[in-house]
C-alpha cells in the first residue's frame, strides 16, 4: 500500500493496473519538481548571465568560475551538499524544496550560457544602428535586442526543461516520492521490479515526447519573422 | 577528525569513478557511431532499431535505466531461466554507456548529415561505393565537427557516474556518503568531493581538447 | 568661408598598439559634400564612426556644429562628455551602414518610425506620414509592410538611407553604402544618394570605393592614408592631376580595368 492505494498481485495485468494510479501520484511530484526546478534555473541563470557580462573582471570572473564549477560537478553530490550542509547553517528546507533547488542550481549554469549565447548572437550592427538613431540603452535592449534574442533562446531552454525532468529521479535519494522512487518502493515490497520500473520507463517516454512536442510547438508559434536564427 | 584522513578512501572512490567514466565513455562512443550511422541506413530494420534505441535511451531517465538493468532485468531472466543478475560494475557501465551512446548517436548523425552534398557527389563522380564514400569522405570530415559536443558528453558522463553509488558501487559519491554517515562532517566531505569531481572534469576536458586538436587536421579548408 | 560644421582638431585614435588616426585635422563646411577615399585600414570609416559616437577618441577634440562632440565644457575646461550630451549631439547626425543594419524583426515602415516616435516623440500618425514620404523618395512605397529579409540588398540599403533621413539630421554619414551589394544593385542606391545630395542642403560625408560617383557628387575629395589626409581638393583636380605619389598609386590601382573593382565600377555606371 502506498498513498492509501492497495495493489493487486493476482496477475501481471491486474498488478500493473492497480499500481498505475500510484505511479501517477509520483508523476505529479515529478512534474512539480521539474517546473519549480526549471523556474529556479531560469532566474538564477539570468543572474549569472548578467554577472558574467559585467564590465569589471572582479564581478565577471567569479561568475564564470561558479558556472564552470556547477556545470562540472554531479547533481547528486550537489544535492547531498545542499541537503546535509544547509541545515548546519540553520537553513532547514523540506526535501522537495532542497531537491528543486539543487536542480535549479545545476541547470542555472546551462541556462546562463543560453542567455549569453542568445544576446551575443544579436550582431553588433544592431547596437550601432540603434545608437545612430539615438534610441536609449533601455529601449535598445527591450525592443531591438530582446525580440531577436528570445526566439533563439526558447528552444534551447525548452530542451533543458526536458533534461531537468529526466534528472528528477535523483531526488529520490533524499526521500522525495517522485515516480521512480514510488516504483522502487513498490518493487521492494512486492519483489516485482520489472513491471513498475518498466512502467516508469514508459511513462517517462510519454512525458518527454509530449514535452518535446510542446517545445517544438512553442518554437513554431514564436514571432521570429526575419530573424536570422543561425 | 582531520580532513586529510578522508583522502585515502575518497581517492579509492575517485579511481573507481575514473574507471567507470573511461569504460562507459568508450562503450558510448562505439554505440554512438554504430547507431548514428545506423539511423542513416537505407535498410529499414537497421534504421528502425537505431531510432528505437536512440529514442528510448534519450527519452527516459538514466536512473530509471540503471535501476531497470540492476533490479528488473534479473527478474526477467529468472522468468526465462537465464541468470541475468549483473554485478554493479557491469550494470553501471552498461547503463552509462547505453545512455551516453544514444545522445552521441544523434551527434554523429547530425555531423554526418552536415557534410555538404557535393562531397558525396564528388565521391560518386569518382565511383566510390556508398560505404567508401561514408568511411573515406564523410566521416573524416564529420568527426572534427562532433568533437566539441563529444567533450561535453564525456563530462556529462563523468558526472552521471555518481548515480551508480545508488546501486552500492564504491565510487567517489558512494565513499562520500559513507564517510558522512560515519563522521557527520558533511560540509568538509562534500566540499572535498565537489572539488575532486571538478578537478577530474577539468582533466577530462583537457584530454578531449587534445583529442579535438589531433583530429582537427581532417577539417576541410572550406568550412 | 562659413564656420565649419565638423572639425577634427588633432584627433588621435588607437586600437591597441595600432594608431588609426594620427593627429588628424579635418573640417567640413555646412552643406558641403565630402568624399573620403583611401586604402583599407587608412582610418576612413573610423572618422565616420567617431562622428556617430560609435568609437571614442584617445586625444584631440571633435567639434560638431560649434560644440565639442566627445567633451563638455564644465568650469571652463573640456571634460569627457556625459551620455546626455552625446544623446543631444547625435540628433545632428545620421548614418548609413555598409551592412545596412536594419532591424530584422520589424517591418520596413516600423524600421522608419521606431526612432522618430521614441526619440523625436512624434505622434504615430506624423511618423507614419514621414516614413511613407521617405519610402516614396527612395522608390519603395509599395514595400512598407515587408520585412527586411524579403527585400534585395539594394532595396534594404535604400530603406537604411530612408531610416537615417527620418531623423532629419543635418549631417549624413555614409559608410561604404554600396560595398556589400551585388554590382547590379549598386546603381539604384547611388541614385538615391545623388538625389539626396542635389535636392537638400545636407552636409554629407561619404566613404566609398565608387570613384566615378565620388567625382560626380562631391565638392571635395579627401585621400586618406595612414591616419591622415594625404591630399585633398575638388574632384576634378584630385582625380585628374593628383600631386602626391601615393594618391597617384592608389588611383591607378582602383581604376585598373583588369582588377575586380574596376569591373564592379564599370557595371555600376552602366
From TrEMBL, chain A:
It holds the Pfam family BPD_transp_1. The chain crosses the membrane at residues 22-51, 91-110, 193-215. It is found in: Cell inner membrane; Cell membrane. Keywords: Amino-acid transport, Cell membrane, Membrane, Transmembrane, Transmembrane helix, Transport. GO terms for biological process: amino acid transport. It is a multi-pass membrane protein. CDD domains: TM_PBP2. SUPFAM superfamilies: MetI-like. InterPro entries: AA_ABC_transptr_permease_3TM, ArtM/GltK/GlnP/TcyL/YhdX-like, Ectoine_EhuD, MetI-like, MetI-like_sf. The keyword Transport applies. The keyword Chloroplast does not apply. GO terms for molecular function: transmembrane transporter activity. Residues 27-216 form the ABC transmembrane type-1 domain. GO terms for cellular component: ATP-binding cassette (ABC) transporter complex. Belongs to the binding-protein-dependent transport system permease family. HisMQ subfamily. This is Ectoine/hydroxyectoine ABC transporter permease subunit EhuD. It comes from Pararhizobium mangrovi. The lineage of its organism: Bacteria, Pseudomonadati, Pseudomonadota, Alphaproteobacteria, Hyphomicrobiales.
UniProtKB/TrEMBL annotation, chain B:
InterPro entries: AA_ABC_transptr_permease_3TM (IPR010065), ArtM/GltK/GlnP/TcyL/YhdX-like (IPR043429), Ectoine_EhuC (IPR014342), MetI-like (IPR000515), MetI-like_sf (IPR035906). One of its GO terms (molecular function) is transmembrane transporter activity. PROSITE patterns: ABC_TM1 (PS50928). Pfam families: BPD_transp_1. Residues 14-208 form the ABC transmembrane type-1 domain. Its main location: membrane. GO terms for biological process: amino acid transport. Keywords: Amino-acid transport, Cell membrane, Membrane, Transmembrane, Transmembrane helix, Transport. It is a multi-pass membrane protein. It is found in: Cell inner membrane; Cell membrane. The chain crosses the membrane at residues 20-41, 189-208. GO terms for cellular component: ATP-binding cassette (ABC) transporter complex. PANTHER family: L-CYSTINE TRANSPORT SYSTEM PERMEASE PROTEIN TCYL (PTHR30614:SF0), MEMBRANE COMPONENT OF AMINO ACID ABC TRANSPORTER (PTHR30614). Belongs to the binding-protein-dependent transport system permease family. HisMQ subfamily. This is Ectoine/hydroxyectoine ABC transporter permease subunit EhuC.
UniProtKB/TrEMBL annotation, chain C:
Residues 6-251 form the ABC transporter domain. It is found in: Cell membrane. The keyword Cell membrane applies. It is a peripheral membrane protein. GO terms for molecular function: ABC-type amino acid transporter activity; ATP binding; ATP hydrolysis activity. Its main location: membrane. GO terms for cellular component: plasma membrane. CDD domains: ABC_HisP_GlnQ (cd03262). The keyword Flavoprotein does not apply. It holds the Pfam family ABC_tran. It comes from the Bacteria. SMART domains: AAA. Gene3D superfamilies: P-loop containing nucleotide triphosphate hydrolases. Keywords: Amino-acid transport, ATP-binding, Cell membrane, Membrane, Nucleotide-binding, Transport. NCBIfam families: ectoine_ehuA. Belongs to the ABC transporter superfamily. This is Ectoine/hydroxyectoine ABC transporter ATP-binding protein EhuA. It comes from Pararhizobium mangrovi. The gene is ehuA.
Amino acid at each position: 500500500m502506498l498513498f492509501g492505494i492497495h495493489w493487486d498481485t493476482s496477475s501481471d495485468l491486474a498488478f500493473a493496473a492497480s499500481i498505475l494510479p500510484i505511479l501517477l501520484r509520483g508523476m505529479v511530484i515529478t512534474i512539480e519538481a521539474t517546473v519549480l526546478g526549471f523556474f529556479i534555473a531560469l532566474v538564477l541563470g539570468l543572474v549569472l548571465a548578467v554577472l558574467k557580462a559585467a564590465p569589471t573582471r572582479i564581478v565577471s570572473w567569479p561568475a564564470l568560475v561558479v558556472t564552470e564549477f556547477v556545470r562540472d560537478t554531479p547533481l547528486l553530490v550537489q544535492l547531498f551538499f545542499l541537503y546535509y550542509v544547509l541545515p548546519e547553517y540553520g537553513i532547514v528546507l523540506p526535501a522537495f524544496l532542497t531537491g528543486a533547488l539543487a536542480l535549479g542550481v545545476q541547470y542555472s549554469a546551462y541556462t546562463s550560457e543560453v542567455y549569453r549565447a542568445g544576446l551575443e548572437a544579436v550582431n553588433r550592427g544592431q547596437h550601432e544602428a540603434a545608437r545612430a538613431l539615438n534610441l536609449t540603452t533601455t529601449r535598445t535592449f527591450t525592443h531591438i535586442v530582446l525580440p531577436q534574442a528570445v526566439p533563439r533562446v526558447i528552444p534551447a531552454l525548452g530542451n533543458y526543461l526536458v533534461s531537468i525532468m529526466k534528472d528528477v529521479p535523483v531526488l529520490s535519494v533524499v526521500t522525495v516520492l517522485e515516480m521512480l522512487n514510488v516504483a522502487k518502493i513498490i518493487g521492494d515490497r512486492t519483489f516485482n521490479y520489472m513491471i513498475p520500473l518498466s512502467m516508469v520507463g514508459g511513462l517517462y517516454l510519454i512525458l518527454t515526447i509530449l514535452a518535446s512536442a510542446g517545445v517544438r510547438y512553442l518554437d513554431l508559434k514564436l514571432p521570429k519573422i526575419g530573424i536570422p536564427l543561425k | 577528525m582531520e580532513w586529510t584522513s578522508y583522502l585515502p578512501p575518497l581517492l579509492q572512490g575517485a579511481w573507481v569513478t575514473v574507471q567507470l567514466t573511461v569504460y562507459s565513455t568508450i562503450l558510448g562512443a562505439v554505440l554512438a557511431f554504430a547507431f548514428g550511422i545506423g539511423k542513416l541506413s537505407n535498410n529499414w530494420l537497421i534504421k528502425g532499431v537505431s531510432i528505437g534505441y536512440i529514442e528510448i535511451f534519450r527519452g527516459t531517465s538514466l536512473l530509471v535505466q540503471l535501476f531497470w538493468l540492476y533490479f528488473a532485468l534479473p527478474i526477467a531472466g529468472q522468468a526465462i531461466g537465464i541468470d541475468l543478475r549483473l554485478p554493479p560494475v557491469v550494470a553501471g557501465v552498461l547503463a552509462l554507456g547505453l545512455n551516453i551512446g544514444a545522445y552521441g548517436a544523434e551527434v554523429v548523425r547530425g555531423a554526418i548529415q552536415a557534410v555538404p552534398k557535393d562531397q558525396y557527389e564528388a565521391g560518386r563522380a569518382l565511383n566510390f561505393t556508398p560505404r567508401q564514400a561514408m568511411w573515406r569522405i564523410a566521416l573524416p570530415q564529420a568527426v572534427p565537427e562532433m568533437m566539441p559536443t563529444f567533450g561535453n558528453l564525456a563530462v556529462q558522463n563523468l558526472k552521471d557516474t555518481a548515480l551508480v553509488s545508488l546501486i552500492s558501487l564504491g565510487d567517489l559519491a558512494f565513499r562520500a556518503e559513507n564517510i558522512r554517515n560515519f563522521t557527520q562532517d558533511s560540509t568538509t566531505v562534500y566540499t572535498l568531493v565537489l572539488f575532486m569531481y571538478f578537478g577530474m572534469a577539468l582533466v577530462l576536458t583537457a584530454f578531449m581538447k587534445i583529442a579535438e586538436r589531433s583530429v582537427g587536421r581532417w577539417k576541410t579548408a572550406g568550412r | 568661408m562659413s564656420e565649419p560644421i565638423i572639425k577634427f582638431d588633432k584627433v588621435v585614435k588607437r586600437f591597441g598598439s595600432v594608431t588609426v588616426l594620427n593627429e588628424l585635422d579635418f573640417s567640413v563646411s555646412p552643406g558641403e559634400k565630402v568624399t573620403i577615399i583611401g586604402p583599407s585600414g587608412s582610418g576612413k570609416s573610423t572618422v565616420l564612426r567617431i562622428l556617430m559616437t560609435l568609437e571614442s577618441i584617445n586625444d584631440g577634440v571633435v567639434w560638431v556644429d560649434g560644440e565639442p562632440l566627445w567633451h563638455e565644457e564644465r568650469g571652463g575646461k573640456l571634460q569627457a562628455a556625459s551620455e546626455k550630451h552625446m544623446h543631444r549631439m547625435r540628433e545632428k547626425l545620421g548614418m548609413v551602414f555598409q551592412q545596412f543594419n536594419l532591424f530584422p524583426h520589424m517591418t520596413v515602415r516600423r524600421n522608419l518610425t521606431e526612432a522618430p516616435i521614441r526619440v523625436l516623440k512624434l505622434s504615430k500618425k506624423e511618423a507614419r506620414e514621414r516614413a511613407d514620404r521617405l519610402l516614396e523618395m527612395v522608390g519603395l512605397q509599395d514595400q512598407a509592410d515587408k520585412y527586411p529579409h524579403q527585400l534585395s540588398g539594394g532595396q534594404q540599403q535604400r530603406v537604411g538611407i530612408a531610416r537615417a533621413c527620418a531623423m532629419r539630421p543635418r549631417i549624413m554619414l555614409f559608410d561604404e553604402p554600396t560595398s556589400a551589394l551585388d554590382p547590379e544593385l549598386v546603381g539604384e542606391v547611388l541614385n538615391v544618394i545623388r538625389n539626396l545630395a542635389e535636392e537638400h542642403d545636407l552636409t554629407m560625408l561619404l566613404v566609398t570605393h565608387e570613384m566615378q560617383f565620388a567625382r560626380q557628387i562631391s565638392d571635395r575629395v579627401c585621400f586618406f592614408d595612414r591616419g591622415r589626409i594625404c591630399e585633398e581638393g575638388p574632384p576634378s583636380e584630385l582625380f585628374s592631376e593628383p600631386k602626391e605619389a601615393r594618391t597617384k598609386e592608389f588611383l591607378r590601382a582602383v581604376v585598373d580595368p583588369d582588377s575586380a573593382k574596376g569591373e564592379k565600377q564599370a557595371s555600376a555606371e552602366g
